[in-house]
Amino acid sequence: MCGHFFFYQLGVSLNLKLNRAHVRDLAKQRIARLFALASQAVKSDTGQANRYVELALKISMRTRVRIPRELKRSVCRKCHAYLCPGITSRVRVRASRSPHVSVTCLNCGTVRRYLLERDS
Ligand SMILES: [Zn+2]
What we know:
Layout lengths: L2 H14 L3 H22 L4 H18 L5 H4 L16 E6 L5 E6 L5 E5 L5
Antiparallel strand pairs: 1-2, 2-3
Helix pairs in contact: 2-3
The site of zinc ion has 8 residues, from loops.
């Protein structure tokens, strides 16, 4: 399915207020597909990967479809770059104090930390 067709269908459905659930379902599929494309593209062209992510974010905002947490974690909060460990991000596990994973965006330098769940 080509992109133009998707947006055409999206626009018509929204205008006519038809079957919103179907539109959201299409948007979800499209977002998942864009992230899959980004994960492939980042290996050879990080700029292309970032464009896929920007498009996914746009679709998410327009259709109010949430991006799954695990996919959202692969996007830099600040510059919206696609984060791939070893290519566009640096991932470190810190055991000191509260154990966490730190992810550094190599594009803008933003660091995010995720606490690790600890089995008690
Ligand atoms: Zn960044």
